[in-house]
Amino acid sequence: MRTSRKVLSTVIGSIVTGALLAPLPVMAALEEVIVTARKTDESIQDVPAAISSFSNEDLKKLNVTQTSDLASFTPSIHIEQPGGNSGTVAKVTIRGQSQSDNIITLDPSVGWYLDDVYLARTQGTATSMFDVDRVEVLKGPQGTLYGRNTTGGTIKLVTTKAETSSGFTGFVVGGVGNYDQSKVGGAINIPIIDNMLAIRLSALKDQVDEGFQDVTLYQGDPTASNRGQIIGHRKNGTYDNELYRVGITFEPLDNLRVLGFYEHNESDVSMANGNLSSSPGPTISAALPNAPFIASLGPFRAQA
Fold it and tell me: Would you say 212 and 179 are in contact if contact means Cβ atoms under 8 Å apart?
């Protein structure tokens, strides 16, 4: 029995010693996230603010293609399209701060920035996220660095810049979807002078032709028994977006980088609650007896 106990103790001691000498698993290092929330490049861990940052790879993995998609993956933020607008307005609420009315004469409570250029009005903020390098959502008042109209927070869209050292590169994307949707786009990086001057060209065509409802338009008095003359038809839910962007990067010195860009973004969106008249004011009213109005709505089309 003594021999058995000694052998058992020796075996247990060998197992414990081997476990202690076994190499520890290598822990994966966290990737450092660089943001420009305070107008300079720094780690997100060093910024004393609540920030949600998305890289280009993050946006692709999450399939974020429109600015309204950010609300699905960002805490404390809600984005919707308000009624009675052109369909290009993104009404943003951050921590309860929002502008309930989005007419062009009112200031928003959440600031939008495109490559650090302030978008003074919300018209045009419901747009594509094509060829975007990074998105930063700053929550809470940001008036110290970003001025007024940022009581709720700030949303910064940073587009992909031309690279002088990455060579001749580019990509092309395309796809189709329900409601007769088609999308095609691409970008190309063209080095003009190696390590000094480069140009980046981006373009996107995204459209939805079918819509979800047929609409008949009449010209006449909506209060009369006779609806008037049929002047046309349209579909609610159609969408046509064209985006063109040119970016230039000039690096004459090692510590100097000059950036320039031009963007043309045009959207045509049909909404169920849009204004059909070219004149200001309501369309379905006796005050405008000759304004176009909707008097016949077809059934909704639902597609998976």
Answer: yes
Query: What radius of gyration, in Å, describes the C-alpha atoms of the chain?
Result: 28
Residue 284, number of CB atoms within 10 A of its CB? 14
> What pLDDT digit, counting tens, does each position of 174-202 carry?
999 888 899 999 999 999 999 999 999 99
- At residue 152, what is the residue type? G
Least Cα distance to 217 among 151, 161, 166, 275 occurs for: 275
Beta bridge partners, 235, equal 214
pTM above threshold 0.90: no
Cβ atoms of 168 and 213 within 8 Å: the answer is: no
* Among 121, 122, 115, 119, CA closest to 136: 115
Q: Kindly give, in sequence order, each residue whose CB lies less than 8 Å from that of residue 207, ignoring residues fewer than 6 positions away.
A: 181, 182, 183, 238, 239, 240, 241
Confidence band, pLDDT 50/70/90 cuts, at residue 5: very low
pLDDT at residue number 101: 76
Q: Give dist(CA 105, CA 297) in Å, integer.
A: 32
Q: How far is CA 116 from the centre of its chain?
A: 15
- List Cα–Cα distances, 40 to 44, 46, 145, 267, in angstroms: 11, 12, 11, 33
Distance from the Cα of residue 185 to its chain's centroid: 16
- Non-local CB neighbours of 50 within 8 Å, separated by 6+ positions: 76, 138, 139, 140
Length of the chain counted residue by residue: 304
Q: Torsions phi, psi of 143, nearest 5?
A: -65, -25
Q: How far apart are CA 9 and CA 13, in angstroms?
A: 6
